[in-house]
Amino acid sequence: MKILKTIQELTDFRNTLKSSSSLEKNKIGFVPTMGALHQGHISLIKKSVLENEITIVSIFVNPTQFLEGEDFEKYPKRYEADIKICELANVDALFMPSVQTMYFKDEPLILAPAKSSFALEGFKRPGHFDGVLRVVLKLFNLVKPTNAYFGKKDAQQLFLLQNMVQTLFLDVNIIPCEIVRDEYGLALSSRNVYLSEVEKQKALSISKSLKIASREVMQGNLDATSIKAKMQEIMCDIEVEYIEIVSRDFQKLDMLQIKNSIILVAAKVGTTRLIDNIWM
Ligand code: PAF
């Protein structure tokens, strides 16, 4: 596996692919990450390795998507372990640029579409999605992937990235990937390392509430207000920021639409902010 730190190294890597036989079908899979890789990331990487001739993973803790006071400085960094994980997963190249490599003092900005990015996560974290789109656009331009893999856990991010690809006419397929959970149901996240054992127990109420919501739907209850109230009851021990039911194109729904809905939760457990969702 090649470890690439500069744009030149990445460009050289891409050029050697062109001149070798490793890209007959011209299929490059890309998994952008902020590192501290867990089984969720590994599932994206495995899918990419299976579906493409070459897989490139990036690890870049992107400063522009963190707000003042968020956890940019303390975001978990486990570069050695991450490199091992990527090697074992048959990744071809790992791109690990510095902030100076990715950003310039004066550069054009990209703004996430106002209507869909100021709801939910964007409302709680204004400017967050501008930073996500900005860095992913740069990464797409550098890596030039055929397929790019993103988890459904960050459902609004996934929607905004699909929207960016469509509206900026980018030549890349966004591949949504299933949420990976631990044995108790907690959705895997790099931020789970912040949770104490007691907090981890409390955090389980998030996935429990989503299970209850899905049971309600299976039993024919499609009323958003009633589903949300039942979920809130389950999460009485944690600080719920929002429970929302939206269509796959992120319009708020009063009545859940089967096969076109996502039930979303954001909650704080101690000082750790967690998100989770279920696609129905
Ligand atoms: O989902 C993430 O880990 C990040 O938002 C991403 C897509 C790697 C951009 O920094």
Would you give an account of this structure?
The protein is α/β, with parallel strands linked by helices and 280 residues long. The chain folds into two domains: 176 residues, Rossmann fold; 86 residues, Pantoate-beta-alanine ligase, C-terminal domain (Pantoate--beta-alanine Ligase, Chain: A,domain 2, 2-Layer Sandwich), CATH 3.30.1300.10. 40% of the residues lie in helices and 19% in strands. Helix 2 links the parallel strand 2 and strand 3. The longest helix has 22 residues. The protein is globular. The mean pLDDT is 96. Pantoate (PAF) binds next to strand 2 and helix 7.
Number of domains: 2
Oligomer: single chain
CATH level-3 fold name of the largest domain: Rossmann fold
Largest sheet: 6 strands, parallel
> Largest beta sheet: what is the strand line-up?
1-4-3-2-5-6
List the ions, cofactors and other small molecules found in this model: pantoate
Number of strands: 9
Given the helix and strand composition, which structural class is it? alpha/beta
The CATH architecture assignment of the largest domain turns out to be 3-Layer(aba) Sandwich
Alpha plus pi helix count: 10
Rg of Cα set: 19 Å
- Per CATH, the class of the largest domain reads Alpha Beta
The global form is globular
Average pLDDT over all residues:
96
Distance between the termini: 38 Å
Uncertain parts: none
DSSP helix fraction: 25-40%
At the fourth level of CATH, the homologous superfamily of the largest domain is HUPs
- Residue fraction in strands: 15-25%
Task: Output the keywords.
40% helix; Pantoate--beta-alanine Ligase, Chain: A,domain 2; Rossmann fold; 6-stranded parallel β-sheet; 3-stranded antiparallel β-sheet; single chain; 19% strand; 2 domains; 280 residues; binds pantoate; alpha/beta; 9 strands
